[in-house]
Specification:
- With 117 residues, this protein is mostly helical.
- It contains five helices and no strands.
- The longest helix is centred in the last third of the chain and has 19 residues.
- The N and C termini lie far apart (52 Å).
Length: 117
């Protein structure tokens, strides 16, 4: 039999718990900075959040970085919400009436296809 099975594992020695020297809180900030932070938050349309299955979409690394940067700016809470806003804006501002109708038909096809599974 191997010596590895016979040996007892070494005990991990715990060191003293470290605490920070100073603790930061938002109350320590000047009032002017707090007001500026509140004013800069953009307004987002209320889009219904539905708990759906997630999937993977292949995008380039540059596109992933752009999406994550926009989420970091606070334009949306998640990349999913951001893409939803971007697509809604594209559909409402760029697509023609006929293209919107075609998109609606194709989306209905995809929805019925995923519901049948």
């Amino acid at each position: 039999m191997s010596d590895l099975l016979k040996r007892k594992p070494k005990k991990i020695e715990r060191s003293q718990t470290l605490t920070p020297r100073t603790i930061f809180s938002s109350n320590d900030l000047p009032e002017q900075i707090k007001e500026e932070a509140v004013e800069k938050k953009p307004v987002i349309k209320n889009t219904p959040t539905v708990a759906e299955k997630t999937t993977t979409v292949r995008v380039s690394v540059a596109m992933k970085n752009k999406l994550n940067a926009m989420v970091t700016l606070g334009i949306a809470d998640t990349v999913d919400q951001l893409t939803d806003v971007l697509i809604d804006e594209y559909v409402s501002n760029i697509l023609s009436k006929d293209e919107k109708k075609q998109l609606e038909i194709i989306l209905d096809l995809y929805k019925s296809k995923s519901n049948n599974k």
